[in-house]
Write a structure and sequence with these properties.
The protein is built from 4 helices and 6 strands, in the order H-H-H-E-E-H-E-E-E-E. The protein is α+β, with helices and mostly antiparallel strands and about 150 residues long. The protein has one domain: Hotdog Thioesterase (Thiol Ester Dehydrase, Chain A), CATH 3.10.129. A hairpin with a 3-residue loop joins strand 4 and strand 5. The protein is globular, with a radius of gyration of 15 Å. It starts with 10 loop residues before the first helix and ends with a strand. Belongs to the thioesterase PaaI family. It comes from Arthrobacter cryoconiti. Keywords: Hydrolase. It holds the Pfam family 4HBT.
């Protein structure tokens, strides 16, 4: 099968965010989004069922020097939405309809790893649990995101 894919200007952005080459065509017209770039999120594994990424604490802290609670939610929404969109496929798109998180411990430096695991991948809804951990594997927060799947 011949691949006629031509990049649309986001190749550097996709590479910097760790997006596998197999995903470039899918993201070639939109990139990963401005907030993903600003937060320093870099993807690891990317499937609808399981997705990982890292994010630095530096630059994403609140006034007391801890990783901002909203940064946890940005990571959760990023991972859950990308995974749901992969599940939905090219003829459909997703919109987040619910997200919530419990913060278990703070972190002041280093790298946070987010791991999204599918809870439900249905025809109209996709729900993922996203766990953020520190470099020692300690749980920082647990979030749940649900996306509505719509036809284009």
């Amino acid at each position: 099968m011949e691949n006629n894919f031509t990049p649309h200007g986001y190749t550097e952005e996709l590479n910097a965010a760790g997006v596998p080459l197999s995903m470039h065509e899918w993201l070639s017209e939109m990139g990963v989004g401005g907030l993903v770039k600003k937060m320093g999120i870099v993807f690891g594994e990317m499937t609808p069922q399981f997705m990982t990424a890292t994010m630095p604490v530096e630059g994403n802290t609140q006034v007391a020097g801890l990783l901002h609670g909203g940064a946890h939610l940005v990571m959760a929404e990023t991972l859950g939405s990308f995974a749901a969109a992969m599940h939905a496929g090219p003829e459909r798109h997703v919109v987040g309809i619910e997200i919530g998180a419990t913060h278990h411990r703070g972190i002041k430096s280093g790298l946070v790893t987010g791991t999204a695991t599918a809870i439900h991948l249905g025809r109209t809804l996709a729900t993922h649990e996203v766990v953020m951990t520190d470099s020692q594997g300690r749980k920082l927060s647990t979030a749940r995101i649900t996306n509505l799947i719509l036809d284009n």
